[in-house]
Specification:
Order of helices and strands: HEHEHHEEHEHHEHHHHEHH
Number of strands: 7
Largest sheet: 5 strands, parallel
CATH superfamily: P-loop containing nucleotide triphosphate hydrolases
CATH architecture: 3-Layer(aba) Sandwich
Radius of gyration: 19 Å
Number of domains: 1
Number of helices: 13
Strand content: 5-15%
Shape: globular
Distance between the termini: 27 Å
CATH class: Alpha Beta
Length: 299
Amino acid sequence: MHSPMSSLDHWWWRFLENHVYRIPPPPKRKRTKPMQVLCVGPPRSATESLQQALLALGYDHTYHGWDIVYDDPPIPATGWVKLARKKWYGGGESSSPKRKGGKEIDDTSSEGDCQITAEEFDELLGHCVAVTDAAASCFAAEMIRAYPKAKVVLNVRRDLDSWHKSAVKTLVHVNESWSFWVSSLLDREAFWAWHVYERFLWALFFRAPDGDMARAIKRNGKWVYREHCDMIRGMVPADRLLEWSADEGWEPLCKFLGKEVPDVPFPHANAAGPGGGWKAREEMAIKSMGGEDHILRED
């Protein structure tokens, strides 16, 4: 249930995206309020609990990975695939070799860099004042540069072995779910949910050159985690950065953000059972397919 990274820019995937599983692009948003908080920690680092905490502190809306696939239709997964292609494949346009006169020509950018602007992020995040989870971790460096006035929270798990065990138990479980994979072949929105996460965001984040996200998490997870956190520490000035874990609760988070500590327990979401929060949403997605009339339905 995986595809080599090199093939994700192939014409075949674009054919599936633009024809077989085509959904309307999400409406382009415009920023209405300044971006205030970027929570750039890796997955399985209390991302959903942090979203709920920020919402309770008045950061509305706080964007989470669920928004990518469960936002109001048309879901914004297509927009995040476009940005992922821009980051990892150059410019968002096909970087597959082109031919002229029977010979391959190299028309890819030679600048060796990728810049994603605030305006590009705002098309997906313009209604948000904070971001957690997949979008923030996979595009951490780009968002930190795009929103230089936003405070940065590096949400972590202090025990790396515990984090890795949780990632294997949840993210790998989803990647190895035959029911979810089959549903992604039969339903447009399920296709995009699988496509954006299992083929693009997490596969690329965890350095899966062969496209096998599950194996990449098992093989690379710990060093990718360390390298990601070291990058954030090196990029962000100390007065703009909070390194935080969920077991520290409200106090350091509220102090950093200049908010009063709420008189309620700190939220704890997304339990680490098999599949975690993904399991419930996977089942919901499959049930929502209904009968035959939902499968590859026309919009």
